[in-house]
Specification:
single chain; mainly beta; Immunoglobulin-like; four-stranded antiparallel sheet; 46 strands; rod-shaped
Length: 587
């Protein structure tokens, strides 16, 4: 202190500012110094009138400035933090404090950067730096934050979505993560990856039947975490190739075969009909069969492969047609004139064509094929019984056979007809050969020149027609019939009945010649006449083709009975006409 001084004045001059203070004391506080400056201080005394000389200059340094942090970032590989700042010329050292959620890290350095090691993953760290000059500690820098490396995802789980061969992956959210990357690497180098924001993702389009190594890592704006532990997964088995299917016609069924597929341990073949009918078979082999299909159906056939956990996508559809249904409502109509069997039925589901078979009892076989619901069996043998059966077809199969029934063809025309006329009764016995297999009803017709017609009918091979008129030529023919048809008539055969008896004899006696003349009208059908003259003991005959006869050798004065019989080439008339005449007495 100067004894004459009443006050002092202090001037401190820095790089860019000047501070001063006035005091009557021997010390002074200069406030609001600029940090990091070298100040030159001069002091002088004043006595109220004069100012004393300046003191020698003295210099001092203000406290270091708060460091200006340039960069703060995490090093991703070793999970440490790097902090960099500007150098302060007055600083001899720096101290860094990094405060996280549950820990605080620090470092001291004379450099302008610091590495904070062993950061906790997924943390936001708040960083403060200050400088020290050996005497004073400078103020804190403005706080700066940075993120450490995100934590490795934990509790990875996965599930294969079988039908589309995609992988659903989930895990616990990782602290510090703003996104994730999931990667599946196949045994042959196949790579499927997805970058997502949420802790779940779908990895599509896995190759079938492959083993994949699955890992997940977390990301933020600066770093990626290390990969999670490898999780081995197996994709869905491959879909079977080259599926072939064929129907089994009887009993109704089908079979399917295919090539083995990668990753498959078993297979299921499925058959789905257009009506919703569904059946399947499972096997460890590459083929299997089903039974119980419905008739007349188109089936879509697919095959699916399975392992212990998953199934493949189904194969492309292969179609088969089951055997057509058995036709229904079959009817047979016989065309008698055309000698054909007309067969009709209701259309059969699943049928492309039909076959009608007709098998005769004599072994004769006929058939017709058609794509409609009717056809004709032609050229059937007459008199045969045919078993009619009907079958439906498609390109692979035939239905079970529908037995329609037995049907009789048109009866055969009767042959080898024989006509025998009984001369005594004028009854015609007509016989023929029975050539029909089934029981046949026959009718015999007899017609004379006057168109008078008689007939007889029965089930045998002969028939008698009584009551024929005498002396008539009859035409005989035979027809055969069943309940549906009649045959054409047989050939016509002629037959002559026994001649008629002359209805009346007339007689006259000649006195001159002692003869008797007998006359009559001609009898129908007669070729000759035989007249018998009988007196009880003696007999005289006259045979003539005329209508009179003269007896010259009769005894006189006798009673004679004259009878006449007509004759043809085959018969004599039945019955006779008679006349009584007494001859002339002997003179």
């Amino acid at each position: 202190m100067s004894p004459n001084a009443r006050s002092y004045k202090v001037i401190a001059t820095g790089h860019s500012d000047t501070l001063q203070c006035n005091t009557s004391d021997t010390s002074c506080v200069l406030q609001n110094l600029e940090c990091g400056q070298n100040y030159t201080v001069t002091v002088w005394a004043e006595d109220g009138t004069c100012r004393g000389p300046e003191s020698p200059q003295v210099t001092f340094k203000s406290v270091p400035c708060p460091p200006r942090i340039l960069h703060v970032f995490a090093t991703c590989d070793n999970n440490s933090g790097i902090i960099q700042w500007e150098r302060d010329p007055n600083a001899r050292s720096y101290k860094v404090i990094a405060t996280g959620h549950s820990d605080t890290l620090q470092c001291n350095t004379s450099d302008t950067s610091c590495e904070l090691q062993n950061l906790e993953c997924g943390q936001n760290y708040t960083v403060t730096v200050w400088a020290e000059d050996g005497t004073c500690r400078g103020p804190d820098s403005p706080q700066v934050t940075f993120q450490s490396v995100p934590c490795i995802p934990q509790n990875i789980s996965s599930a294969v979505i079988c039908g589309v061969n995609s992988l659903l992956v989930t895990w616990n959210a990782s602290s510090g993560a703003t996104g994730y990357s999931a990667t599946a690497v196949g045994s042959q180098g196949q790579l499927v990856t997805a970058n997502i924001l949420e802790p779940t993702c779908l990895l599509p389009n896995l190759e079938c039947g492959q083993v994949y190594n699955l890992t997940v890592l977390a990301m933020n704006n600066q770093c990626k975490s290390a990969e999670s532990p490898v999780l081995e997964i197996v994709s869905a088995p491959c879909s079977p190739l080259h599926l072939m299917a064929s129907p089994q016609c009887s009993p109704l069924g089908a079979s399917a075969s295919w090539e083995s597929s990668v990753g498959a341990k078993s297979y299921t073949a499925t058959f789905i009909g257009m009506n919703g009918d569904r059946t399947s078979c499972s096997t460890n082999d590459t083929s299997c069969s089903v039974s119980g299909l419905h008739c007349g159906q188109v089936y879509n056939v697919t095959t699916t492969a399975y392992d212990n956990n998953c199934f493949s996508s189904t194969t492309n559809i292969t179609q088969i047609s089951s055997a057509p249904c058995v036709p229904t409502n079959a009817e047979v109509k016989i065309d008698c004139d055309g000698n054909l069997l007309n067969v009709t039925w209701s259309p059969s589901q699943g049928a492309d064509s039909y076959t009608v078979n007709a098998t005769g009892k004599n072994g004769h076989t006929l058939y017709c094929n058609t794509t409609t619901n009717g056809c004709n069996i032609v050229n059937a043998h007459c008199g045969d019984t045919y078993l009619i059966s009907l079958t439906a077809h498609n390109k692979d199969c035939s239905s079970d056979v529908l037995t329609v029934g037995n049907f009789n063809a048109v009866p055969c025309i009767p042959d080898q007809v024989v006509v025998s006329i009984d001369c005594l009764t004028n009854e015609a016995l007509v016989s023929w050969q029975n050539t029909n297999i089934y029981q046949t009803y026959y009718t015999v017709f007899a017609r004379n020149i006057s168109d008078n017609e008689l007939s007889c009918s029965n089930w045998s091979s002969s028939c008698a027609i009584p009551g024929l008129e005498c002396g008539q030529e009859y035409s005989f023919w035979v027809t055969a019939g069943n309940r549906n048809c009649h045959s054409l008539q047989s050939m016509v055969y002629k037959g002559m009945t026994a001649p008629c008896v002359p209805p009346e004899l007339r007689g006259s006696v000649s006195c001159d010649t002692h003869s008797v003349t007998v006359s009559w009208d001609s009898a129908r059908g007669a070729d000759t006449y035989t007249i018998n003259a009988h007196d009880g003991q003696n007999e005289s005959l006259c045979v003539t083709s005329n209508t009179s006869c003269v007896f010259n050798d009769l005894l006189c004065d006798n009673d004679y009975q004259f009878t006449i019989t007509s004759s043809s080439a085959s018969c004599n008339s039945t019955g006779d006409s008679s006349l009584h005449i007494k001859t002339i007495p002997d003179n």
